[in-house]
Design brief:
The complex is a heterodimer of chains A (117) and B (111). Chain A is built from no helices and eleven strands. With 117 residues, chain A is mostly beta strands. In chain A, strands 2, 4, 5, 6, 9, 10 and 11 form a seven-stranded mixed sheet that branches. In chain A, strand 5 (42-49) and strand 6 (56-57) form a beta hairpin. The mean pLDDT of chain A is 92. Chain B is mostly beta strands and 111 residues long. Classes of the chains: A mainly beta (117), B mainly beta (111). The interface between A and B is medium-sized, with 25 and 26 residues.
């Protein structure tokens, strides 16, 4: 069974800090995604990656960056955390290999609840 | 601006069939429509996906009309454990091939 592991379930940081959220998947998936989930807004895509060192902006990339140095690991970086980045962050992965992005089921981690004080 | 629309919440009783509809315009021609289920403190979990007409698996059915402007997730004979939030996911290309989740439908199943 696919396992997507996010490094922390809960994280508290201060405004202006650089924050790293880590995600690891164990199924050799090509695609990896970062979402944020807010009440009333559902899930919104921040960034995704379809291969090592490749990245694409999602709906709300402002204030975030990502890194994918190895196939199994996808990191989300808040360069200078702000209070409006307090949210639940979800990582996902899916099989790729040239298939259309929406055609492979995504497998999600259980999320990191990030609070910026 | 293209987006998806789902009911915010629905109530049902055990044993009933529940239908949740997601409206979506300008979706990509070749991409599937996918539905996910999410329990509190967990990530979403894949339920079903389809391209058109009807798809059925062991937990749900998915109905997609020919124009693909909507999709309906059907849960037969729900139980208390089906209480969750349900999301549709589509690809909308007039926003640059963006994956768009619906805002989610909170289903509450009562005894």
């Amino acid at each position: 069974d696919v396992k997507v592991t996010q490094s922390s379930r809960y994280l508290v940081k201060r405004t202006g800090e650089k924050v790293f959220l880590e995600c690891v998947q164990d199924m050799d998936h090509e695609n990896m995604f970062w979402y944020r989930q807010d009440p009333g807004l559902g899930l919104r895509l921040i960034y995704f990656s379809y291969d090592v060192k490749m990245k694409e902006k999602g709906d709300i990339p402002e204030g975030y960056s990502v890194s994918r140095e190895k196939k199994e690991r996808f990191s989300l970086i808040l360069e200078s955390a702000s209070t409006n980045q307090t949210s639940m962050y979800l990582c996902a992965s899916s099989f790729g290999q040239g298939d259309l992005l929406g055609n492979q089921p995504q497998h999600f981690g259980d999320g990191t609840r990030l609070s910026i004080l | 601006l293209a987006k998806t629309t789902q009911p915010i919440s629905m109530d049902s009783y055990e044993g009933q069939e529940v239908n949740i509809t997601c409206s979506h315009n300008n979706i990509a021609t070749n991409d599937y429509i996918t539905w996910y289920q999410q329990f509190p403190s967990q990530g979403p979990r894949f339920i079903i996906q389809g391209y058109k007409t009807k798809v059925t698996n062991e937990v749900a059915s998915l109905f997609i009309p020919a124009d693909r402007k909507s999709s309906t997730l059907s849960l037969p004979r729900v139980s208390l454990s089906d209480t969750a939030v349900y999301y549709c996911l589509v690809v909308i290309y007039n926003q640059g091939g963006k994956l768009i989740f619906g805002q989610g439908t909170e289903l509450s199943v009562k005894p």
